[in-house]
Design goal:
Blueprint lengths: L4 E4 L18 E4 L6 E7 L7 E6 L11 E2 L2 E2 L2 E2 L3 E2 L4 E4 L4 E9 L37 E5 L2 E2 L1 E7 L5 E9 L6 E10 L7 E7 L9 E3 L6 E11 L2 E3 L1 E9 L11 E8 L8 E6 L43 E6 L5 H10 L4 E5 L3 H14 L2 E5 L14 H23 L5 E8 L10 H10 L5 E5 L2 H10 L4 E5 L14 H21 L3 E5 L8 E3 L6 E3 L7 H13 L5 E3 L21 H20 L2 E3 L7 E3 L4 E8 L8 E7 L6 E7 L7 E5 L4 E2 L4 E4 L4 E8 H9 L6
Parallel strand pairs: 1-3, 23-24, 23-32, 24-25, 25-26, 26-27, 27-28, 28-29
Antiparallel strand pairs: 2-22, 3-21, 4-9, 4-22, 5-8, 6-7, 6-21, 9-10, 10-20, 11-12, 11-19, 13-18, 14-17, 14-20, 15-16, 15-18, 30-31, 33-35, 34-37, 35-36, 36-41, 37-40, 38-39, 38-41
């Protein structure tokens, strides 16, 4: 056996409810990935009986694969073979739980890091079933094939004295064979001849999932999904869990003070898994060691710089914001504002701000030439809650929001650093009329700073644009999910999801003579660790974008018509999560990607706000490379630019691609293809693009290109 290794536990505790993806309060993970190990943890409270949780990892690289087997906890054997990603809970009250899930949409355990791989764990369907495994390339398991019964069988086995008392099984198998049935069977032999219990359903009747088998008393059983009838029936998901009697195991006690937990496994095991201890009474977990403030001694290089001179922007459609979404409760605005200028940013979309903080912030932002969009956090800070009942909305609006807004608006209405008032965010369809009075009040009291709403719903954006006519709509779209059950989690689906939302919102804005600003994803959020039905594994989470993934979102947004990019968010609020800056303020590759794209967009911002998509039938230019997208643009009528334009995006964030430019008709003799960012002719029709990169092309004579350039100054 491998020699045990000792680990001293370092705890980073997150209170439940502070994040959508956080470890539950009163549970901690012991930092080990390989068994055997001697684990230590501290209990600051009274003695209690904890729940010990084992999550199994399979060694997929071994041939054949190696399962986590024969786990012992403090010398007591608690498992035989554990299936990939399965969860075992040994509770302090003598009960236990063993659960497993597999199939379409189930993430890989542990979560994968590679951006280009599908996170759906279809491979384990090849080795987890003892009968009926797939080739590991498909997400479905078989019940019948061409009218021939097939079975998918799993083994649940535990050492004495653990006993299975109840088993719950469910699957997604709606295509019941014609004239037949789908059944869940328990049997004592792998061949399936000794059936212990069976539950079935047909198209017409029968108990559908879950199938619950109670009154059991065994430590080994085979669970089979099968069927009979005409045609082919598939299972897309399988989930099952067994409730256990663990009262015969030695009791595990967490004494006051330092505790030790010994975990080992069989010699032929994967030696790989995770261990959690759960059930700590409130206040019994050590608090995390305070980390020094890395910016405590920061001195701004701009502290003596000459203040910027900002002009008032009354029409935000003339402005191309480059920045991020973030809160206002920051002790280091000097660093943040310096950081923005370093990385070619000019705007913050505020979240959970307060009027007093806004008034303190505006002079700092104005001095550095930074604009902000203000959004509050409560009725008193001007945030309109559309999910309250109408009576509550009206009362809070009149008693809290209106008087407070009148006071603050009077103080800040002449400040050029304030760009817009964001009244609320992510409203549901049909709620835009509730905001009409608020829109009118803002326009009356502060005509210098127009109202807007942040939207993530196409129908709600349509309602708002039609009802309240904002000059700008910002739409937040976060396409890179880790959990396929939550959202798109493969490269192509993520890209199509993002591009589709941009297309839909832009067309609505175009009809309403409004501009669209995009809020893409900069965050990487670790998933929750669910140790309970029905998930038994990671839930939720967002994949950490690479620099190229950050850039491709901006380029696709601009290609679809966006005239502003504000990433979500600036800094992560939780250790282990990631954004433009990490929890410790360190720079990330996301920030490098944002800086690169903002440096490019800064050069063409004045041009892009004067263009609109060209939806005419005359598609004069196209891309022969399907990975390189291109959309044509023309001058907005009021700007009278002379050239024709195209925005190009390499949607492959892994590989460089070549734009193979195709023109439907030759350009006039005096015309050229001009790279507006590089400020020179493009150099031919085969143009190399780095991963996730893009460009803005002009088509016209040198004189017209120069005229358009002079007619398109950027407003900063």
């Amino acid at each position: 056996m491998m020699q045990p290794r000792s680990f001293l536990l370092t705890i980073m505790l997150t209170a439940s409810g502070t994040s959508g993806f956080s470890e539950p309060a009163h549970r901690l993970e012991l930092p080990v990935k390989q068994f055997p190990a001697q684990l230590e943890y501290e209990n600051l409270g009274a003695e209690f009986s904890p729940t010990v949780i084992i999550v199994a990892h399979t060694d997929r690289e071994s041939k054949p694969v190696k399962f986590l087997k024969g786990v012992t906890v403090n010398g007591a054997r608690v498992t035989e073979k554990m299936l990939t990603g399965s969860v075992l809970k040994i509770r302090g009250d003598g009960t236990g739980l063993y659960g497993y899930t597999s199939g379409f949409g189930v993430p890989v355990v542990p979560p994968i890091a590679e951006a280009t791989r599908s996170p759906m764990d279809v491979a384990k369907n090849a080795w987890d079933p003892v009968v009926g495994g797939t080739n590991g390339m498909y997400s479905w398991l078989l019940v019948t094939v061409a009218s021939t019964p097939r079975r998918t069988t799993y083994e649940l086995s535990f050492p004495d004295p653990i006993r299975i008392k109840k088993l719950t099984a469910q699957a997604s198998c709606e295509a019941v064979p014609d004239g037949g049935s789908v059944s869940t069977q328990l049997h004592s032999d792998i061949a399936g001849k000794e059936i212990v219990a069976k539950k079935s359903f047909t198209k017409e009747n029968g108990e559908r999932y879950p199938h619950v088998f109670d009154g059991m008393n065994t430590n080994r059983v085979f669970l089979t999904f099968t069927g009979e009838g005409k045609g082919t029936a598939l299972i897309y998901n399988v989930t099952f869990w067994a409730e256990l009697d663990c009262s015969g195991l030695p009791k595990i006690t967490a004494a006051a003070g330092r505790n030790s937990l010994s975990v080992s496994d069989d010699d032929d095991s994967s030696h790989w898994g995770r261990v959690f201890v759960e059930g700590f009474p409130k206040g019994s977990l050590p608090k995390p060691t305070p980390t020094p403030d890395p910016l405590a001694n920061y001195v701004s290089p701009n502290k003596d710089a000459k203040p910027a001179k900002l002009s008032m922007i009354k029409d935000p459609r003339e402005f191309f914001p480059r920045g991020f979404y973030w809160g206002l409760g920051c002790p280091h605005w000097d660093f943040v504002l310096d950081d923005m200028k370093t990385h070619h940013m000019n705007c913050i979309y505020g979240s959970n701000w307060w009027p007093e903080a806004l008034e303190d912030f505006l002079p700092l932002a104005e001095r550095m030439g930074i604009r902000c969009i203000y959004q509050g956090s409560s009725w008193g800070s001007f945030y309109y809650f559309t999910y309250h009942d109408k009576q509550h909305q009206q009362r809070s609006y009149e008693k809290e929001l209106v008087p407070n807004f009148k006071t603050t608006a009077e103080r800040v209405k002449n400040n050029p650093s304030l760009l817009m008032w964001s009244l609320t965010e992510e409203i549901a369809p049909g709620t835009a009329p509730f905001l009409s009075d608020y829109y009118r009040m803002v326009r009356e009291l502060d005509p210098n700073h127009p109202p807007t709403v942040l939207h993530n719903n196409v129908a709600a954006a349509r309602d708002d644009l039609t009802t309240n006519e904002p000059l700008v709509v910002t739409t937040d779209v976060y396409p890179f999910f880790l959990d396929p059950r939550s959202g798109p989690a493969t490269p192509q689906r993520s890209l199509n999801f993002f591009a589709g939302r941009m297309e839909d919102i832009y067309k609505l804005c175009r009809q309403a003579n409004a501009s669209m600003w995009a809020m893409p994803q900069a965050c990487g959020i670790v998933p929750d660790d669910s140790c309970d039905p029905p998930h038994f594994g990671p839930v939720g989470g967002f994949r950490k974008p690479t620099a190229a993934m950050v850039k491709v979102q901006a380029w696709v947004a601009v290609l679809k018509g966006a005239t502003g990019v504000l990433y979500y968010p600036y800094i992560s609020n939780h250790p282990g999560h990631s954004s433009l800056r990490d929890f410790d303020w360190s720079e990330t590759e996301q920030l490098k990607g944002a800086s690169d794209i903002f440096a490019q967009l800064e050069k063409v911002a004045g041009l892009l706000v004067r263009l609109e998509r060209d939806f005419s039938d005359d598609k004069f230019v196209s891309s022969a490379n399907p990975a390189v997208w291109i959309h044509t643009f023309k001058s907005r009528p009021e700007n009278r630019l002379r050239c024709r334009y195209a925005v190009v995006a390499n949607t492959d964030w892994e590989n460089a691609q070549t734009l193979d430019l195709k023109l439907t008709q030759p350009l006039p003799a005096n015309a050229m293809v001009y790279d507006c960012i590089a400020g020179k002719p493009s150099g031919g029709n085969a143009i190399a693009l780095s991963p996730g990169d893009g460009m803005v092309l002009a088509f016209g004579s040198r004189q017209d290109i120069e005229r358009d350039r002079k007619a398109s100054p950027s407003v900063e």
